[in-house]
């Protein structure tokens, strides 16, 4: 798989999905502050169930999951499965293949995670909301690439690759944080079952099993076992993704020879060109089925699943997550809520912390000549894209729910204020980042050699 092609395709997919995400977020705001607010909020509290006989697959601790929990714990596991596929692809054939090539965005991402957390902890020192310290560490790849897409070809491809790779490393950091800090009491029996199923997945992946259903069904079992084991179920998505084979069953050279052979052997029946109702002969059908089978086998399971899931993730799961979680009731909030400690800590962490972390860590490694500045990228454009790193919408909301969602009435207040800080910080980062990029990027675009 050509890594530049894969990067460009990801950028295009995420950027187009960002538009749907914006609409879903705005719709959540409107409904949460309209006469339909009660209906909007009560819907997410409805039970979600999938009955198999007398067994509810979407049950946890003897109770059915709510629709909100289903979105956050089940659908988001599919999102993290796709993230896991992307990480594996980047490590094997993408921007994370070479440490030298990937060092700048890796260092920038680490700085962009550490500084916002430290800033959050400083602002909230001595408070009871420090369990949400990881909220401002994330970068929303769909929103940030959507802003870059608004500037078109003025944005050099190296800058797009830098931001994309940085966001992927950010996702790795977010996954580790969720696995380490947001898992509850471990139920060993469920965990042992999960390890057994995961081992079967790993063996299947090593054997080159090409069936999507194999990974979806066993992945679903691992998800259920993780849900009941105390480990956050979204981690199951990432681990299952790492089992998916990156190599195709059929080599490209073998595929080409198979196609040539079948085309040569394809029976040339003497049918009239105008007669469209004639059925194919058995021999013709067998040739075409052989070509179809070879076509399926020449695409690696990893690439096939990524291609299948991208539209589902970008146009359904992430917008639905935003629609469910971004509804903030403004009528009960005073302006001072934006300046509450937690809102301010998140706002500053995203707008200021991400910028300082990404830009300063990049500046240090470039000035020390450990890495070089990417082609066609200037200090000003690097600073501007560092601001875009503060768009932390999706994963920030996800971590906020993990941090405060189970704390009762006090947690509900903290969650609302955290959401306000996330939305304000992400919006400010997007606006400031776009303004700076529009100011610093060249007005005349030279064609890049790719």
Can you offer a commentary on this structure?
The protein is globular. Strands 1-5-4 form a 3-stranded antiparallel beta sheet. Strands 2-3 form a two-stranded antiparallel sheet. The protein has 450 residues and is an all-alpha fold. It folds into 2 domains: 3-248 and 299-440, Up-down Bundle (Na+/H+ antiporter like fold); 256-268 and 279-296, no CATH class. It has 16 helices and 5 strands.
Characteristic terms for this protein:
single chain; 450 residues; mainly alpha; Na+/H+ antiporter like fold; two-stranded antiparallel ribbon; globular; antiport
Give me the Rg, rounded. 24 Å
Overall average pLDDT: 85
**End-to-end span in angstroms?**
16 Å
**CATH architecture name of the largest domain:** Up-down Bundle
Low-confidence stretches: none
Q: What do we call the CATH topology of the largest domain?
A: Na+/H+ antiporter like fold
CATH superfamily of the largest domain: Na+/H+ antiporter like domain
The SSE order reads HHEEEEEHHHHHHHHHHHHHH
Strand order in space, largest sheet: 1-5-4
Q: Specify the CATH class of the largest domain.
A: Mainly Alpha
Tally of helical segments = 16
Report on the biggest sheet: 3 strands, antiparallel
How much beta, percentage-wise?
under 5%
**Helix/strand structural class:** mainly alpha
Number of domain units? 2
Say how many strands there are: 5
Overall, the morphology is: globular
Would you kindly provide a brief summary of this structure?
It is found in: Cell inner membrane; Cell membrane. The chain is mainly α.
